[in-house]
């Protein structure tokens, strides 16, 4: 004999082949939202196992509506079928089982709110916001420094010898006049700078100093966020952090939309994450597919010889996939993950000290195609 197991917002129900209710296991009133959330996450809940255990004594085959796999259950005479006969009957006759549309709508609205709150509270969401903030702060600081350099040059043009932007801003923010700056860093300026006339309005000097202080505070904020990202990565993704570093690891998580989602990606997807435009161009016009995306930022990929970068990127993508899955599913830490990767890179470099004829030919063809494109652009401009 067969029976059909399905569930509603109130719990699990079992029907026989005549659509007669033979068993029900209802959720506790205060646990309905939690149970539905667990089912959405493909978890086997208590009421589900209870009803399977109870009907398995009287029926040879149990046909259940489920989003899970058979291996998730410990029942031999179980079969998954979605939808099944019992589920169709339940959804066509909600009124008979004390269910109405308003109640169903209300519970699913509460479930949606619960999921949003749970999602926003997850650790990787804070990490994503932090790494995106770093990118925006960098862009802002770059523009502000360009402006202060141009502005401060009206008063002290010799400051251009300070090439490091952080040092440049720190000197201006902590020293009001050129004399103070000279005293703070005497080796950087020629001795005749102090002989120049100081004819600037004090109010102009004050506002430039205040402007520099605001940039300096923004630089300090960036460092604090960077430290926060490093700490967060150590907590939620220690294997990924060790393998690629906090910044690149956080960018990969951000690009994927979350740590769990990144763990589900195959290594081939991880390899070209961040190179979507090049991939679409390849699909559309037949250009060569990208060999790497964000992972090009890894020193071992970026610093490799050009003919080995693809091999190293492919191998790194595989290591990243394994590291993330270890962080998400097994929660174990492999302290050798980076050293093993470096050893593999050394083997690739050792086994491929020179480009093969094929790689040389490809590079030459690529150079020719670029030259053709440039010539075509020039011709179009002339026309």
How would you characterize this protein structure?
The chain is of the alpha/beta class. The protein folds into three domains: 2-121, 2-Layer Sandwich (Nucleotidyltransferase, domain 5); 124-232, Helix Hairpins; 238-244 and 255-352, Nop domain (Serum Albumin, Chain A, Domain 1), CATH 1.10.246.90. Helix content is 62%, strand content 7%. The protein has helices at residues 32-40, 46-55, 85-92, 101-121, 123-152, 165-174, 178-184, 202-236, 238-244, 246-256, 259-264, 267-272, 276-285, 299-302, 309-330, 337-351, 357-382; strands at 2-7, 11-16, 21-26, 61-64, 78-80. A five-stranded mixed beta sheet has the order 3-2-1-4-5, with helices on both faces. It is elongated.
């Amino acid at each position: 004999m067969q029976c059909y197991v399905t569930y509603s917002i109130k719990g699990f129900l079992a029907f026989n082949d005549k659509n007669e209710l033979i068993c029900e296991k209802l959720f506790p009133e205060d646990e309905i939202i939690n149970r539905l959330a667990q089912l959405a996450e493909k978890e086997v809940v208590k009421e589900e196992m209870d009803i399977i255990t109870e009907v398995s004594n009287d029926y040879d085959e149990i046909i259940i509506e489920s989003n899970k796999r058979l291996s998730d259950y410990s029942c031999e005479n179980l079969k998954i079928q979605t939808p099944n006969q019992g589920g169709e009957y339940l959804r066509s006759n909600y009124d008979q089982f004390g269910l109405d549309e308003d109640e169903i709508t209300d519970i699913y609205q509460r479930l949606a709110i619960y999921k949003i709150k749970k999602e926003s509270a997850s650790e990787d969401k804070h990490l994503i916001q932090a790494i995106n903030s770093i990118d925006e702060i960098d862009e802002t600081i770059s523009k502000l420094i360009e402006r202060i350099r141009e502005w401060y040059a009206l008063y002290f043009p010799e400051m251009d010898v300070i090439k490091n932007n952080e040092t440049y801003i720190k000197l201006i923010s902590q020293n009001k006049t050129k004399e103070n700056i000279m005293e703070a860093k005497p080796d950087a300026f020629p001795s005749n700078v102090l002989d120049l006339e100081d004819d600037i309005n004090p109010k102009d000097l004050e506002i430039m100093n205040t402007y520099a202080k605001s940039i300096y505070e923004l630089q300090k904020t960036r460092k604090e966020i960077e430290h926060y990202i490093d700490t967060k990565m150590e907590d939620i993704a220690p294997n990924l952090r060790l393998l690629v570093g906090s910044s690149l690891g956080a960018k990969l998580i951000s690009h994927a939309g979350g740590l769990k989602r990144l763990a589900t990606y195959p290594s081939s997807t991880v390899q070209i994450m961040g190179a979507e435009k090049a991939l679409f161009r390849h699909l559309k016009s037949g250009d060569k597919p990208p060999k790497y995306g964000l992972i090009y930022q890894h020193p071992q990929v970026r610093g490799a010889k050009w003919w080995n970068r693809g091999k190293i990127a492919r191998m790194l993508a595989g290591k990243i996939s394994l590291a993330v899955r270890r962080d998400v599913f097994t929660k174990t830490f492999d302290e050798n993950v980076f050293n093993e990767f470096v050893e593999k890179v050394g083997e690739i470099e050792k086994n491929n000290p020179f480009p093969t004829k094929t790689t040389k030919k490809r590079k030459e063809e690529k150079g020719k195609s670029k030259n053709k494109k440039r010539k075509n652009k020039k011709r179009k401009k002339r026309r």
